[in-house]
Amino acid sequence: MTRRIYQSFIMGWRWPLILSVLAVLTGLYLSGTFSDPPTPPPLGDGWWGRGDRAKAPKADESIRKFSISISNDTINDLKTRLRNTRHFEGLEGTKFHYGVRPEYMQTVVKYWLNKYDFKAQEKYFNKYNHYRTNIEGLDIHFVHVKPTLKPGQKSKPLLISHGWPGSFYEFYKILPLLTDPVNNGGTAEDIFEVICPSIPGYGYSEASHKTGMTAHAVARIFGKLMSRLGHDRYYVQGGDWGSTITIIMGLLIPEHVKGLHINMIAAFTPIPQLIIGSYFPSLFLPAEEHHKVWPAIPKFFDMLLESGYLHIQLTKPDTIGHSLTDSPVGLAAYILEKFSTATNATWRDLEDGGLNDGWQIDDLLNNIMVYWMNGNMASAMRFYKENAQLFIDDINRCQVKVPSGVADFPGETMNQPETWARYRYINLLQYNSMPRGGHFAALEEPQLLAEDIRLFVRKVETIQ
Ligand SMILES: *[C@@H]1O[C@H](CO)[C@@H](O)[C@H](O)[C@H]1NC(C)=O
Ligand SMILES: *[C@@H]1O[C@H](CO)[C@@H](O)[C@H](O)[C@H]1NC(C)=O
Question: Ligand 2: does its nearest atom lie under 6 Å from the Cβ of 353?
């Protein structure tokens, strides 16, 4: 219905609209292509602590280990809120079409209250070591897994970045594959030392107290973290915002980045190709890539239907932040919608949004618990507003020169086809279309993603 309204509204204006959009965008695009790609901006520096920097106490820059604790107070408070949930009735005949179905949320609340084992999950959270260290005035959290090495064996450092609404928890299943490859389908040369930091305002990283915490700033902070850990040359990997951070690290500090691997590739879309290609697709892309961008109009409407959250978070994140910080069921529904549709868009047509078969409920709740325990959904959402400029920033036209690899999972709708990716990634060593999996690939398909990272890194190592 919503789609039909959008459609009839816009279709009435189709030709004038398309022609004027085409004219404006062609002009914009051409003015970009006639100039050389810009050089990346300077690295810069920042300080994001509370209050006046001159009066702030000297930061403790040591690396401090800590354990995650789910206290009884946290559990009791959460359970009280869950017991007091005000549920509502879903519409007859709808599945996940109006958002997360109320009847499905009742089953989540029941499980969370009665079956979710808080103490067992606390233990699981502490399966890997957690640390914090102060960078640019903020305590930055990271998971750090150092592999056990045989004499003479060397591991490769790898930083993996999460996005929204994910967290460091997304990497719990891929960590053993990367740090103990011999027992997990790899070879001795595939061994990594892995660092999974939390973006400021996410997980156990302190939120910025100042405006302007952009992906650029986070890329610099993560680079400083790697230097502090003694790594001069390393690999970077990421999806969602993590891919943006990863790419910006490749642009700002290429001397430190041996290679970057991403599972979401938001390059610039060449709009004239997109429009003209709606009629003559083979002018621009090989046949097997047509389905990734065309038919453009339904894909555009689908994007509109699924991106309401984006507009809220780009503009007024704190307003909805109050609800999501105060209500566990509200927080869970907001996050679960993404784990349904961003994994597989057809799951909107299922009673449970595909979540029962597609995911383990404990994994979904653990990721939600990371937000709940830290009360930081609002600061996490602010990352969109701080990065609004990115949509039009020149940095999007900077060419990525470090060796790059892309894993294109079929459920990931944001991806660019390889042909267009090559305009920007001039050293693209591999672009693999994955057999299955979606936006949260590390947690959903850890084996596939790990194998793609291994393949990529082996290629980089042979050319260096
Ligand atoms: C937390 O609750 C559990 C189970 O009710 C109890 O065994 C434990 O002693 C409590 N811990 C603290 C620190 O009060
Ligand atoms: C999405 O889910 C449907 C139904 O469960 C399945 O048939 C389809 O292959 C999935 N698509 C992707 C891209 O995984």
Answer: no
- DSSP letter, residue 90: P
Find the helix packing angle between 241-252 and 215-228, rounded to 10°.
70
Question: Which residue, 365, 441, 445, is CA-closest to 122?
Answer: 365
This prediction has a pTM of 0.93
Q: Looking up tokens 């993404």, which residue turns up?
A: 338
Measured distance CA(437)–CA(121) in Å, rounded: 25
Residue 31 parent element (H or E): helix 14-33
pLDDT for 325: 98
In ligand 2, which atom is closest to the CA atom of 409? 13
Q: Report which protein residue has its CA nearest ligand 2's atom 11.
A: 344
- CA dist 146 and 133 (Å) reads 17
CB 388 within 8 A of CB 381: no
Residue whose Cα lies nearest atom 3 of ligand 2: it is 346
- Does the Cβ of 411 fall within 6 Å of ligand 2? yes
Q: Which ligand is nearest to the CA of 345?
A: 2
Catalytic residue check, 384: yes
Residue ranges per structural domain of the chain: 53-463
**In Å, how far are 97, 105, 337, 437 from 351, measured between CA atoms?**
10, 11, 13, 20
Active-site pick, 128, 131, 234, 384 = 384
* 116 included as an active-site residue: no
The ligand with the least distance to the CA atom of 73 is: 1
Q: What pLDDT, in 10s, does the model give residues 253-275?
A: 999 999 999 999 976 788 889 99
Enter the CATH code of domain 53-463.
3.40.50.1820
pLDDT tens by residue, 303-351: 999 999 999 999 999 999 999 999 999 999 999 999 999 999 999 999 9
Residue whose CA lies nearest to ligand 2 atom number 14: 436
Has residue 118 got a pLDDT over 70? Answer: yes
